[in-house]
Write a structure and sequence with these properties.
single chain; two-stranded antiparallel ribbon; 2% strand; mainly alpha; 2 strands
Amino acid sequence: ADPEPSADPAAWLSEAVRRYVEESGAGGRPLDAEVFDFVSSSSARLWDVGARTADSSGPKTYSKAPVALANLVDANQSRNLDVRSMESALREVCQEGASGEEAAQTFLGPGQSPTHRAMLHISSSRLEHVQGFVFGLLEDAQGYPDPRLEVLFLYQCCAMFLDLRRVVADKNKVALAARTLCLLVLFCRRVLLQHLARVGRLDADPGDLAAEAEHLEAMLGQALPHLCRTVAALACGVERPDVRRSGLWKLALEALIYLVEDTLPAVERCPLRPDTLSAYWEAVSSSLTAAVRVALPPPAAGTAPRPPAETVDSNVLAQAI
């Protein structure tokens, strides 16, 4: 059996880059090879503190000893936490006479999709100004023409910011992980909505439909299984009590539910290959099973369950969790 992707996200990123270069023929030119080499080793280079602090002319930049983290994630006290479901957005975008592009942009905006300010839980640890600016650009980024690049992008996010070995090394890495979880949800929503809306057009060209289906196959059969297992590992925090103490598992669990619920309309609407469906459902079932058995604390005695939402505009699973 293949090893769990969450065991070593950096190794899985390197393997994904290798497969992409072999299948696409990219990397033939020296500049391309250098770019793919950087992507493959990006997480190791970014967090190589020794290399970043080596300075023969003076003391190292980081001189403070690490401090154990306390809980940094609590319930969001904001009253404006409404998040629309992917199902409702697809119905609006695909309905006759609706402005698809305008409706899609509205759905992906801060008032209707989960952001770091609108999640049910919020981190008290904040990004540096430059980091926040970069993530703002990434959250508005469109998908790539090549669906394999979308997969690589998501693999790289997991390797750089959701690796259990360093995700709670300090407050800044907790902030990076929290913002990354939102980024994953937003990016997947954007890609799925873009291509599902085109698949739903009755007058679509067969060649265009095949291209859109390729994006959905890659997202659901390759990217989503990796995201589910990586985020579920963060939500469960097995043998990592520091992850549980930080509270980051709450955001991870919420992101996992959004990833699953947002992709269900795609599985319903798009005819997918058997291997894609098998990979998708295996990842969804195993990650949700782990979340229920390990991540969720037992309910307090006498606590009545919250009734599920009854409208298609609500994210039922997220509200129930």
